[in-house]
Design goal:
By secondary structure, the chain is α+β, with helices and mostly antiparallel strands. The protein has two helices and four strands.
Length: 118
């Protein structure tokens, strides 16, 4: 049984790991372990790959992994991935703001970015 709140960001175009399938399993298991409480927020980001970084970070479809000595495909489509990163950033900021300052309004936070319009 758990009481921890979790934000899970999942790129639906992840070519490195079956992220969507894994996320759905985790979501189901977490719901069961939490006694049905809504403690996990799962965000599925369409056309977004494995490497979800802050907004405006360049899209990296694949890269060389030195330790594995292999080229790894991370996935994502350039525009969709950029939109996903923007949504993920907004969701992350909102999640932590609500978790640590639940009485503050969204406009009172100096580090909060506006919700992306897609």
């Amino acid at each position: 049984k758990t009481e921890a709140k979790v934000l899970m960001l999942c790129g639906n175009h992840d070519l490195n790991w079956p992220a969507s399938d894994s996320a759905r399993l985790l979501e189901r298991n977490y719901r069961e372990k939490s006694g049905g409480k809504k403690l996990l927020e799962a965000v599925y980001l369409p056309r977004t790959g494995h490497l979800i970084e802050p907004p405006f970070a360049p899209h990296c479809f694949s890269s060389w992994h030195k330790t594995l000595s292999a080229n790894l495909a991370w996935g994502g489509e350039p525009l969709g991935h950029a939109q996903g990163q923007s949504i993920a950033w907004h969701k992350t900021i909102t999640f932590f703001r609500d978790l640590f300052a639940p009485t503050s309004s969204s406009s009172s936070s100096s580090f909060c970015v506006p919700k992306p319009k897609l």
